[in-house]
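Handout, page 2. Input:
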Amino acid sequence: MTEKHFVYILQTERGTLYCGYTDDVERRFNAHKTGHGAKYTKANKPVKLLWQKAFDTKSEALKEEYRIKHKLTRQQKFELIQSD
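Output:
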């Protein structure tokens, strides 16, 4: 079985967006919800998984995570979510 790598976007209670990388979206989302996922989501509880995309390699996924986090505006992130 080929391992998949995912980039995902969560929405928090405050309406902010959080983008991350994982090899198991469900496990990672549950970690975020219980305060064990990331410093940001510990302070900003996630309420909904808005988007995810699978990649064949970790490198591809991490490049996309970087692009989303550092190059896209909030509006562009919502456009990405709606386009898929």
